[in-house]
Amino acid sequence: MKIEASSRFARIAPTKARPLARLLKGLSVADALRATAFSRQKAAFLIGKVLKSAIANAENNAKQSAEDFRVEQVIVEQGPMMRRHWSRSRGMVRPVTKRTSHIRIVLVNE
User: Is the pTM of this model over 0.85?
Assistant: First the structure.
């Protein structure tokens, strides 16, 4: 049985979140929670929130213990970019793109 949880429009660039997502693939739920709890990255906090949501989905919707699941996929896709500008000298501007991510976690029963 597959359980999913997602977070859309997370304010982190996907390139910063993907390395941690690759580390969590295949881990048990307890190990993945531990890895996100002890990491100081912003991505760890955001992925940890989605992982806790997936655990709650497993316990409430599937009526199974979260210990029976492992992380099958952590997908970090690019969301829309917020476009801003930064004022420079002589009346010019430079573009600033603030990137967002869509984070999706899939848990599977072992």
Answer: yes
32-81 pLDDT tens trace:
999 999 999 999 999 999 999 999 999 998 888 888 899 999 999 999 99
Give the CATH H-level superfamily of domain 2-109.
Ribosomal protein L22/L17 (3.90.470.10)
Q: How far apart are CA 75 and CA 72, in angstroms?
A: 10
Give the position of tokens 């100081």. Answer: 40
1, 13, 14, 84, 96 from 99: Cα distances, Å:
33, 5, 8, 11, 9
Helix (H) or strand (E) segment spanning residue 4 = strand 2-10
Does the structure show a pLDDT above 90 at 103?
yes
